[in-house]
Specification:
- It is a single chain.
- With 323 residues, this protein is an alpha/beta fold.
- The protein contains 9 helices and 16 strands.
- It has an 8-stranded parallel β-barrel, surrounded by 6 helices.
- Helix 2 runs parallel beside helix 3 and helix 3 packs parallel to helix 4.
- It starts with 9 loop residues before the first strand and ends in a 5-residue tail after the last helix.
- The relative contact order is 0.16.
Length: 323
Amino acid sequence: MSDPAVDLTVDLGRGLVLPNPILVASGTFGYGVEYGDVVEIDRLGAICCKGTTLRPRIGNPTPRVTETPGGMLNSIGLQNPGVDAVIKKYAGTWTTWRVPVIVNVAGESVEDYVEVAKRLDGVPGVAGIELNISCPNVGRGGLQFAIDAGAAGEVTAAVRRATDLPLLVKLSPNVSDIRPIAKAIADAGADALTAINTLSGIAVAPTRTKPLLGNVYGGLSGPAIKPVALRIVYEAAQAVKIPIVAIGGVTELADVLDFLAVGAVAVQVGTAIFADPTLPVRLVDELADACRARGVATHRDLVGTALPTKPAAPSAKGVEYKP
């Protein structure tokens, strides 16, 4: 068990204080109830529930998931019963848990996000909102909110006005420079960032006559994306002052320590849960042990140790060949 003398608490702002920095990522842990028999739910830092939309969604055509080297591609398509059904079915249970539940919210327009946020505001059992802005904006020709600083700031500001709940916004890696987008979101009133969402990819059917997934495109997750996630957290941490929660390929303690070093205050475990649902709770204990071994009283002493003393060049320039 983790030593109570090691302070693992995380303050994400607006009163949302997590008991530890190990969260479970949206889409990999359902609504929490699905894992109640195999995981000590209340030992997690927080649960980010499945993506929730204003109206029910049946999701994308099958096949929806395939394994890839070092990860998986998924194209679930935000299948969910809609925000009203989620509140009715799960919020009562969430109130009985010590672990905070953060509702991941998705939408196709600013109005969608605002309406879902309004319905979640003040609901017992809902500790915060994580905005999944890697969704096509129907008002801008299908452009994702997450890849445009103006759109990202606009939807963040609108949701901030609509709710007093702690607000996390999830960054997309599918951009050339994350810094202006991270800044726009922070300036618009987000309490924290989460980084990163999946990378866009495809797989080819065994016949080689078409793409494998029913929706053609899927989101790549797992260990294969960790270097990209590290890079984006590293860059975002130099651009904003709000907390960053890292996601992308966490499978062991070393991954947690790497993300802390580049500026994250917490991590989310996602794809690895499918292979080992007990991993997140185990990481809590291992992180406490690592702090003790280093002679520090809190994991916060491990945050940002790999960041430069002054802002580094953006990766768009950093990867260019220099003779």
